[in-house]
TrEMBL record:
Keywords: Cell membrane, Membrane, Transmembrane, Transmembrane helix, Transport. It is a multi-pass membrane protein. It comes from Cohnella hashimotonis. InterPro entries: MetI-like (IPR000515), MetI-like_sf (IPR035906). Coiled coil: none annotated. Belongs to the binding-protein-dependent transport system permease family. This is Carbohydrate ABC transporter permease. SUPFAM superfamilies: MetI-like.
Length: 267
């Protein structure tokens, strides 16, 4: 027990040190970082942040990442909640087979099927379009479906029966009563999926080649591929990519844990 705590503390301290070092050096000039990497900085400056938005148009990459994130999360939540409601509340033939299908889907990363996926996206004319990334990432509904189906299955039948007695149909029962009750699980899923979508690198790398449609991870790769020449931009872009999602996860960390726990326990 003590060894586990010690390992967790060491890992946490190391992670915080890396983040602090990243933020610290992002306020230094490139020459200062390269000439005095581990020493005390000569001065602090916001020039790196100003230059990356003015000269590199980094705002475009932030906007692309935000669009991909928001649309993808919306589609995943909409699809997964409706599929999970059907799986959790109704009995039908091959239900276990459908659940097994989504369970197996957790085991196959998108990298395994990237060639046929690329050909399909190309035939649809969506290469170099944000929709190519959105559609591919939106297909990853296995984990949300499994968590939400367990949650919906655990809700008492009296709720749905009361709604039907009041004249509500199946659709109205779902979006007026059942869906709001699942909000803790949905919020948790949104946070977890946001981290995954925001940091997604492989799919945008394959689908997006034009500079104007690239997301933040691809922009960071451009700077880190020539790290000595773009050290300041690499540090600043890494901070801009890391800190927002880290703050979001820190604020909602308790809701993430409680939401995942309520969705994973089947009563």
């Amino acid at each position: 027990m003590y060894i586990s705590k010690l390992i967790l503390w060491l890992f946490s301290c190391f992670t915080l040190f890396i983040l602090g070092y990243l933020v610290w050096n992002s306020f230094r000039t490139k020459r200062d970082v390269l000439s005095n990497t581990l020493g005390w900085p000569k001065s602090f400056t916001f020039d790196g942040y100003v230059d990356i938005f003015r000269d590199e148009h980094f705002g475009i990459h932030i906007w692309n990442s935000v669009v991909v994130l928001v649309v993808t999360i919306f589609i995943i939540v909409a699809l997964a909640s409706m599929v999970a409601y059907g799986l959790g509340r109704y009995k039908f033939k091959f239900k276990q087979g459908v659940l097994l299908y989504f369970l197996v889907g957790l085991m196959f990363p998108v990298q395994l099927g990237i060639v046929p996926i690329f050909l399909i996206i190309k035939n649809m004319g969506l290469i170099n379009s944000l929709w190519s990334v959105i559609l591919i990432l939106s297909a990853g509904i296995s984990m949300p479906v499994l968590l939400l189906s367990n949650f919906f299955a655990g809700l008492p039948n009296a709720l749905a029966e009361s709604a039907r007695l009041d004249g509500a149909g199946e659709w109205k029962t779902f979006y007026r009563i059942m869906f709001p009750l699942a909000s803790p699980v949905i919020v948790s899923l949104c946070i977890i999926l946001s981290v995954s979508v925001w940091n997604q690198f492989f799919v945008p790398l394959v689908m997006l080649q034009n500079e104007t449609v690239k997301t933040i991870p691809l922009a960071i790769m451009k700077y880190t591929s020539n790290i000595l020449m773009s050290m300041d931009y690499a540090l600043v872009s890494s901070v801009l990519a890391t800190i927002p999602i880290l703050i979001l996860f820190f604020i909602f960390s308790e809701r993430v844990i409680s939401g995942v726990a309520s969705g994973s326990i089947k009563e």
